[in-house]
Amino acid sequence: MIVGLGGSLARSSTSRAALERALEGAAAGAETRLFDLRELDLSMYDPDEDEPGEAAAELIESCYAADGLIWSSPLYQGTISGALKNALDWLHVLGRRDPPYLHDKVIGLISAAGGTQGLQAINTMEFAVRALRGWAVPYVVPVASAARVFDASGAIKDESVEAQLSMLGAEVVRIAELFAQDRTVHRQHECAQAAQAVAAAG
Ligand SMILES: Cc1cc2nc3c(=O)[nH]c(=O)nc-3n(C[C@H](O)[C@H](O)[C@H](O)COP(=O)(O)O)c2cc1C
Question: Of all protein residues, whose CA lies closest to atom 22 belonging to ligand 1?
């Protein structure tokens, strides 16, 4: 399962539209689920009251169970939106799990900017990926002049950006599969070592 998280709180959101296109790219190889920040309507994360409500709990469990994620933020004041940051703060409760946080999960990154570039938001998200023990996909999609790329209904007008978003979705699936294969090989190796130890002991 590939989980998409993002969009702005705006009714018509370019970062949400971009996320939807990337999830379509992922859907060729995996199940997908969109967590739209406007619909989620999360309460502010409070470390003193961190029992998640229904929406936050569903988000947290889905992110923990996911094989890969795609995050998409608007560029706000040169960085990510408060709404996305708040959603990422809720993932802090995963620090109590074993393995903790988003351990070994693959995360694709998208930003949508009004101006000519949105790499600051991508870079900021990458810090959060590392803090949450995930792995950022090297290929990223910072959508510039986003209002010219999507129309008000969310339809995409730029074929090259559409191809980039689709490729990002496919990359998240491809790399998530590599991680899954590596886990299988690692488990097989551990089983073989345990069997050898038993044979040697007796
Ligand atoms: C509060 C706010 C801050 C913004 N700051 C920037 C900015 O620093 N640089 C920029 O290029 N665009 C900025 N924009 C424009 C948004 O990045 C752009 O409109 C984007 O498409 C919004 O994403 P959305 O359509 O998902 O809401 C800002 C917009 C808002 C509302």
Answer: 74
